[in-house]
Design a protein that fits this description.
Length: about 210
C-alpha cells in the first residue's frame, strides 16, 4: 500500500526515504507489531518498542507523529499479505474467492482480536497522519472486495461496502460483547448467499459471450 503520510521531522514521505531509512522504519513497525501480538495496545510503551527495534525513543518520533500513527502503519503492514490475489492462482470462482477473502479477514481478527480493537480505536484518532493511514487501510480492504466481486460490474462497489460493514458490525459484537465468532462467519456467509445469483448470472453471461 502506497502511503503518503510524512515524517514529522523531515516532511519526507515513505517513497522519498532512502533504503536505510526505510529499513529502520520497518524495524520500528515490526517491533510495534510484535508488541501488539503479545499484549493489548493500551499496555504498550513506545520506549519498549524503540528498545526492541534497536533505536532511540526520539528516532521513533522522527518517523511517526504519535503512537496512533505508528499503529496505523502496523495495521497496514499486518494486513499486507491479505492483498495477494488468489483467484487466478487457485482457479477460484468469484463466489469462492469472496468467501475465502471474508473468512481470511474474520480468521485473522479471531486469532488476534487486539488488532481489531486497534482498528476501531484509530478510526477516531485526532492524529491526521493516523487518520490518513486508516483511510487507506479501510479503502484497500474494500478495494480487495470490489476486485473479488468484479463480475457484478457497477454493483461491485456497493456490495463490497455492505459486506465490509457487515463484517465490522459482527466482529464488533463478537469481540466486544462476547458473541460467538461462528455468528460472524454465518451472517457474512448469508450476505454472500444473497450475491450468488447475480455472480452466477454474470459468470454465465461471460461464458456465453
Amino acid at each position: 500500500m502506497a502511503t503518503q503520510t510524512r515524517s514529522p521531522t523531515t516532511g519526507a514521505t515513505v517513497h522519498d526515504m532512502p533504503s536505510w531509512q526505510l529499513a529502520r522504519r520497518d524495524r520500528i513497525v515490526q517491533a510495534a507489531m510484535t508488541a501488539l501480538e503479545q499484549q493489548e495496545y493500551e499496555h504498550i510503551q513506545i520506549r519498549d518498542v524503540a528498545q526492541a527495534a534497536g533505536v532511540a525513543l526520539g528516532t521513533v518520533y522522527r518517523y511517526f507523529s504519535s503512537k496512533e500513527h505508528l499503529y496505523a502503519a502496523v495495521l497496514q503492514a499486518w494486513a499486507e499479505p491479505g492483498r495477494r490475489p488468489a483467484r487466478r492462482a487457485a482457479q477460484l470462482t468469484a463466489e469462492q474467492q469472496v468467501r475465502a477473502r471474508m473468512r481470511g479477514v474474520v480468521a485473522a481478527f479471531e486469532r488476534q482480536p487486539q488488532f481489531f480493537k486497534v482498528q476501531v480505536l484509530l478510526q477516531g484518532s485526532p492524529d491526521e497522519n493516523a487518520r490518513q493511514l486508516m483511510s487507506e487501510f479501510v479503502g484497500a480492504a474494500q478495494e480487495w472486495l470490489v476486485a473479488d466481486l468484479a463480475p457484478l460490474g457497477k454493483e461491485a462497489e456497493d456490495a463490497a461496502t455492505m459486506l465490509w460493514a457487515v463484517l465490522n458490525t459482527m466482529l464488533t459484537v463478537a469481540i466486544y460483547h462476547g458473541r460467538s465468532m461462528r455468528e460472524v462467519y454465518r451472517i457474512a456467509d448469508k450476505f454472500i448467499d444473497l450475491l450468488v445469483p447475480a455472480l452466477d448470472a454474470a459468470a454465465a453471461e461471460q461464458l456465453s459471450s
